[in-house]
Amino acid sequence: MVTLWGGHMADLLKIERDVEKVAEMVEDIAEAVEKVATMTEEISKDIEEEFPQDGAINKVAHFVDHLSEEVIKDAHSTQEFIHQMTSTEKIVETSIEAAMEAFDGLINAKPTISKSESDQDEATKTHTEKTNSQSNL
User: Fold this and answer.
1) Which of 110, 90, 87 is nearest to 98 (CA)?
2) How many of the other CB atoms lie within 10 Å of CB of 68?
3) Which helix (H) or strand (E) holds 137?
4) Residue 51: helix, strand or coil by DSSP?
5) pTM
6) Cα-Cα-Cα-Cα dihedral of 66, 69, 71, 73, to 10°?
7) What is the pLDDT of residue 122?
8) Residue 58 near residue 52 (C-beta atoms within 8 A)
9) Residues 37, 72: contact at Cβ < 8 Å?
């Protein structure tokens, strides 16, 4: 199995490590964005409370508050996606390992002859011997 997968396995492992690094970076960024959005949301709510409701500053603060809520939702979605991707990666990895083990088992398995095949071979051999002895007469 090593000879079949050896050359490509190193490439696949490198790709897997690179993908894991990128996933970790994206998750870290999503967490940072979520923190900033949460702080921004809190500040905008404080501003909304301090200034007149129909004033321009309050309207901007309300808009920023709404925008912050959307950013938080997107950050959560990104984190959820990363977790699902990681979970799927583990499932695929397990499936590939099982398939490789099964493939190894097929390659390394010794062929066996069933009783019926053995009986059939014996019958063919006997028939051939009879036919040859009759033709010699």
Assistant:
1) 90
2) 21
3) none
4) coil
5) 0.56
6) -140
7) 67
8) yes
9) yes
Alpha helices in 51-114 (DSSP H): 56-108
Q: To 10 degrees, the CA torsion angle through 13, 19, 20, 25?
A: 150
Q: What share of the chain is helix, strand, coil (3-state, %, to 5)?
A: 90, 0, 10
How many CB atoms are closer than 10 A to CB 70? 10
Reply yes or no on whether the pLDDT at 132 is more than 70: no
Query: Minimal CA–CA distance to 50: which of 62, 39, 38?
Result: 62
Q: Which of 75, 76, 46 is nearest to 62 (CA)?
A: 46
Tokens representing residue 56 in the block? 């321009």
**Residue 55 token pair:** 């004033």
Number of Cβ atoms within 10 Å of the Cβ of 44: 21
What pLDDT does residue 130 have?
64
Average pLDDT over residues 55-71: 89
